[in-house]
Structures are given as structure tokens and as C-alpha cells.
């Protein structure tokens, strides 16, 4: 790993109090922005509370990525204007673009650097979905770094398609780096760690050996990159992130 690579370790959400988190971590991926958008004033308050140099990334608001049939819509009790069929799956519809505009104000208030679009497993690779996401991301480009985490197997088995999309649209390809390599050419690596043993295993606790392997994978796959975000998304994310920071510190 080159000396110029900046490693940023954090969690997907706040597993402990904000004040305690700020003492140890320098980045967080806000999860509440996926379920229901906070008020702009609340996002501004979050920014003020954070110490200088602390970084917010955000999980994109679900109306843009998930259709209304998703259980996460029911959990959030979302009721939005327009046609239900027009929401989700990165469709370049009036409804999705208006959802982006509403969310954009919140991300701006947080001084968010990266917005992570995690698509549901129902978002499959088809000619239509490729056309849709091209038009959608082209329409919203420019203000934030945009990251995309596809989860259907059709994307995982077509790395060349993913690489071309990420290159053309200047997207960061988000993966769990311990399961598959990112395909983008972005100067930013962004990995979300969902546990080992199966595709999603939130109850998993990373071992010392796992974390050493994680560092090696980041080193191998960060050629040409300037920064690497290592974001834990498991139940024990706080302990695992602290262990990784301690391990990285001992290697300096």
C-alpha cells in the first residue's frame, strides 16, 4: 500500500453515542438517511456537533433505489406523491429525481462527501435497468461523489458491465472486498463489510486473522487510489472497527 493512500475506518451508523464515536472515528456512513430523511435543520445540527475534520457519508434515501413493495418502505411508513411504480430501481422518473432533490438538501446540510446507493436484490442487470441508471446518475451528477452497491448476482457475474458503467458514470463501485473486488477506476475505494460465512452475516465477529487479510486485500486493490473507506456493517461493528484501527496503528 502506497504511503499516499489515506485509510478511513468507520461504521455504517452510530453503534455508540455520537460523542464517544467522535473520540475514536473520523468517518461514519449515516443510515437514517435511507429510511426517512431528517429535517435539514437536524442535518445541520449533526454537522455542527461533529469535530473538525470528521466526515459524513450517507446511505441514499430508499425511494430512489427501492420500490414501494420493499419491506423497508413499510418500516419507514413512507407516503410519497406520484405513481408508486415510478419510484426505486434508479429510474430516471420525475418522482425519483424529486426524491433526489429533497435528499440532496439534507446531504448538503451534513457536508456529506459520498452518497451510497445500495440497490436491492430485485434490481437485476437488464438492458432497461442499465439505461435507467445511466440516465438517473447523469441527471444527478456533480455535487457529491456517488457510490453504487449492486446486490443481485447478475451484476456480480458481469464485472465488465459494472466496470464500464462505473467508468462512464464516474461511480465508486461498492463491494464487500472480502467477497469480491471492486470494478471501478475511481481514486476512491469504498468497502462495506457485512460479515463472513455467507453473503450477509451481520452476527459475524471479525477475527485478528480476518482483519489482517482485510488489510492485505485493501493493499492489493488500492493501486492508483488515493483513499480507502473501510466501513463495518455488522452487529459488532464498533469493536471490529476499533480492532482494525489498533492493528493499523501497530503496523506504522
Task: Itemize the secondary structure elements and their pairings.
Layout: E1 6-12, H1 18-24, E2 27-30, H2 32-35, H3 40-49, E3 55-59, H4 71-76, H5 94-110, E4 114-118, H6 127-140, E5 145-149, H7 153-156, H8 159-169, E6 172-173, E7 188-193, H9 208-220, E8 227-232, H10 237-250
Parallel strand pairs: 1-2, 1-8, 2-3, 3-4, 4-5, 5-6, 7-8
In short:
With 252 residues, the protein is α/β, with parallel strands linked by helices.
Number of strands: 8
Q: Class by helix and strand content?
A: alpha/beta
What is the rounded distance between the termini? 12 Å
Please write the CATH class name.
Alpha Beta
Tell me what portion of residues adopts beta-strand conformation: 15-25%
CATH superfamily: Protein of unknown function UPF0759
The biggest sheet amounts to: 8 strands, parallel
Please bin the fraction of helical residues.
25-40%
Keywords:
about 250 residues, alpha/beta, TIM Barrel, 8-stranded parallel beta sheet, about 40% helix
Task: Please give a structural write-up.
This protein is α/β, with parallel strands linked by helices and 252 residues long. The protein has a single domain (6-250), classed as Protein of unknown function UPF0759 (TIM Barrel). Helices cover 40% and strands 16% of the residues. It contains ten helices and eight strands. The protein has helices at 18-24, 32-35, 40-49, 71-76, 94-110, 127-140, 153-156, 159-169, 208-220, 237-250, and strands at 6-12, 27-30, 55-59, 114-118, 145-149, 172-173, 188-193, 227-232. An eight-stranded parallel beta sheet has the order 6-5-4-3-2-1-8-7. α3 (40-49) runs parallel beside α5 (94-110) and α9 (208-220) crosses α10 (237-250). The radius of gyration is 18 Å and the shape is globular.
Amino acid at each position: 500500500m502506497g504511503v499516499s493512500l489515506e485509510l478511513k475506518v468507520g461504521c455504517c451508523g452510530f453503534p455508540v453515542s455520537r460523542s464517544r464515536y467522535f473520540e475514536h472515528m473520523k468517518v461514519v456512513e449515516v443510515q437514517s438517511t435511507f429510511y426517512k430523511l431528517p429535517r435539514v435543520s437536524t442535518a445541520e445540527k449533526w454537522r455542527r456537533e461533529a469535530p473538525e475534520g470528521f466526515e459524513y457519508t450517507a446511505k441514499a434515501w430508499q425511494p430512489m433505489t427501492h420500490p414501494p413493495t420493499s419491506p423497508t418502505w413499510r418500516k419507514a411508513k413512507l407516503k410519497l406523491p406520484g405513481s408508486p411504480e415510478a419510484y426505486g430501481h434508479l429510474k430516471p422518473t420525475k418522482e425519483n429525481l424529486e426524491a433526489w432533490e429533497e435528499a440532496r438538501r439534507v446531504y448538503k446540510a451534513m457536508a456529506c462527501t459520498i452518497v451510497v446507493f445500495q440497490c436491492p436484490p430485485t434490481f437485476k442487470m437488464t438492458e432497461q435497468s442499465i439505461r435507467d441508471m445511466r440516465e438517473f446518475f447523469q441527471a444527478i451528477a456533480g455535487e457529491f461523489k456517488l457510490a453504487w452497491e449492486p446486490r443481485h448476482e447478475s451484476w456480480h457475474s458481469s464485472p465488465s458491465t459494472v466496470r464500464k458503467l462505473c467508468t462512464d458514470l464516474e461511480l465508486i463501485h461498492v463491494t464487500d472486498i472480502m467477497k469480491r473486488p471492486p470494478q471501478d477506476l475511481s481514486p476512491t475505494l469504498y468497502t462495506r463489510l457485512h460479515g463472513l460465512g455467507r453473503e450477509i452475516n451481520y452476527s459475524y465477529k471479525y477475527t485478528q486473522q480476518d482483519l489482517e487479510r482485510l488489510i492485505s486485500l485493501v493493499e492489493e486493490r488500492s493501486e492508483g487510489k488515493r483513499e480507502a473507506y473501510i466501513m463495518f456493517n455488522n452487529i459488532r461493528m464498533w469493536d471490529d472497527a476499533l480492532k482494525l484501527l489498533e492493528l493499523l496503528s501497530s503496523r506504522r
